[in-house]
């Protein structure tokens, strides 16, 4: 079965700093999703990447997919307290395409 | 346009009891998946329903069962509750393979 490993597990940054979260898959990535979760709440969809080399941006968040490395990265520029939360990557596992999730990266942004 | 809605939001049960959680998918979505998220962990796939049938199942015992109704809403049933079943249960829907999942806010189940 597919496994997704995220790094780092947690991150504390000063407001205004840039940061990167990585997601590495044990198998070929067919579709990669990034979500954000506030504690105890549901997951909010951020972006979906489907092709190797694909890069998408939304406001100050950019995600890239490296198909050969079976890896995706999420980069936040000039972090703000509103960026705080848990970031999760998810991947389609083929077949009926259940989505498997990583363990998450907890981000704290200090004002 | 309502998103995914789940009920109840919180639930406290005793070991050995049974529980039913409910989910209404986002309008136009026909596929519903259920996830269990323990504290500090990523969501774990329980099962997926499409056209009222369980299409795929994760590594969960038979105590976990579900149902999908003709209007695409779904229920998750857990029998013989254990302390380890305490978790946030998330329902998600999508409008086809390869489309992103849309999540509800979850049901927080506490088993005492």
The gist of it:
By secondary structure, chain A is mainly β. Chain A is built from no helices and eleven strands.
Characterization of this structure:
- The complex is a heterodimer of chains A (111) and B (112).
- In chain A, the strands form two sheets. In chain A, strands 2, 4, 5, 9, 10 and 11 form a six-stranded mixed sheet that branches.
- Chain A has strands at residues 4-7, 10-14, 19-25, 32-37, 43-49, 55-58, 61-66, 71-76, 85-92, 99-101, 105-110.
- With 111 residues, chain A is mainly β.
- Chain A has no helices and eleven strands.
- Chain B is mainly β.
- In chain B, 0% of the residues lie in helices and 51% in strands.
- Chain B is built from no helices and eleven strands.
- Chain B has strands spanning 5-7, 10-13, 19-24, 31-37, 44-50, 53-57, 64-68, 74-78, 87-94, 102-103, 107-111.
- In chain B, the strands form two sheets. In chain B, strands 2, 4, 5, 6, 9, 10 and 11 form a seven-stranded mixed sheet that branches.
- In chain B, a hairpin with a 6-residue loop joins strand 4 (31-37) and strand 5.
- The N and C termini of chain B lie far apart (37 Å).
- Chains A and B meet through strand 5, strand 9 and strand 10 of A and strand 5, strand 9 and strand 10 of B.
Summary tags:
heterodimer; A: 111 residues; mainly beta; five-stranded antiparallel sheet; B: 112 residues; seven-stranded mixed sheet; four-stranded antiparallel sheet; 11 strands; 0% helix; globular
SSE layout and pairing:
The complex is a heterodimer of chains A (111) and B (112).
Chain A: E1 4-7, E2 10-14, E3 19-25, E4 32-37, E5 43-49, E6 55-58, E7 61-66, E8 71-76, E9 85-92, E10 99-101, E11 105-110
Parallel strand pairs in A: 2-11
Antiparallel strand pairs in A: 1-3, 3-8, 4-5, 4-9, 6-7, 7-8, 9-10, 9-11
Chain B: E1 5-7, E2 10-13, E3 19-24, E4 31-37, E5 44-50, E6 53-57, E7 64-68, E8 74-78, E9 87-94, E10 102-103, E11 107-111
Parallel strand pairs in B: 2-11
Antiparallel strand pairs in B: 1-3, 3-8, 4-5, 4-9, 5-6, 7-8, 9-10, 9-11
């Amino acid at each position: 079965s597919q496994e997704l490993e995220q790094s780092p597990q947690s991150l504390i940054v000063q407001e205004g700093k840039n940061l990167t979260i990585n997601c590495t898959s044990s198998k070929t990535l067919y579709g990669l999703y990034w979500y954000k979760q506030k504690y105890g709440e549901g997951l909010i969809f951020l972006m979906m990447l489907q092709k190797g080399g694909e890069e998408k941006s939304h406001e100050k968040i950019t995600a890239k997919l490296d198909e050969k490395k079976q890896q995706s990265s999420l980069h936040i520029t000039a972090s703000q307290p509103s960026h705080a939360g848990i970031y999760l990557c998810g991947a389609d596992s083929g077949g009926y395409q259940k989505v498997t999730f990583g363990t998450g990266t907890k981000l704290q942004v200090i004002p | 346009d309502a998103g995914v809605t789940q009920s109840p939001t919180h639930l406290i049960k005793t070991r050995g009891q049974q529980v039913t959680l409910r989910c209404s998918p986002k309008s136009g979505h026909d596929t519903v998946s259920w996830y269990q998220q323990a504290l500090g962990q990523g969501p774990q796939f329980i099962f997926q329903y499409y056209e009222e049938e369980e299409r795929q199942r994760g590594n969960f015992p038979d105590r976990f069962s579900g149902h999908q109704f003709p209007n695409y809403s779904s229920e998750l049933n857990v029998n013989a509750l254990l302390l380890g079943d305490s978790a946030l249960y998330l329902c998600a829907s999508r409008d086809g393979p390869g489309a992103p999942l849309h999540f509800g806010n979850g049901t927080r189940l506490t088993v005492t």
